[in-house]
Amino acid sequence: MLLHGMHLARAAGATHMTVACLGAPGHPKARGLYYSVGFREFTRDVTLIKTKTAG
Question: Mind giving me the DSSP string for the chain?
Answer without folding.
Answer: -HHHHHHHHHHTT--------TTGGG-HHHHHHHHHTT-----S------PPPP-
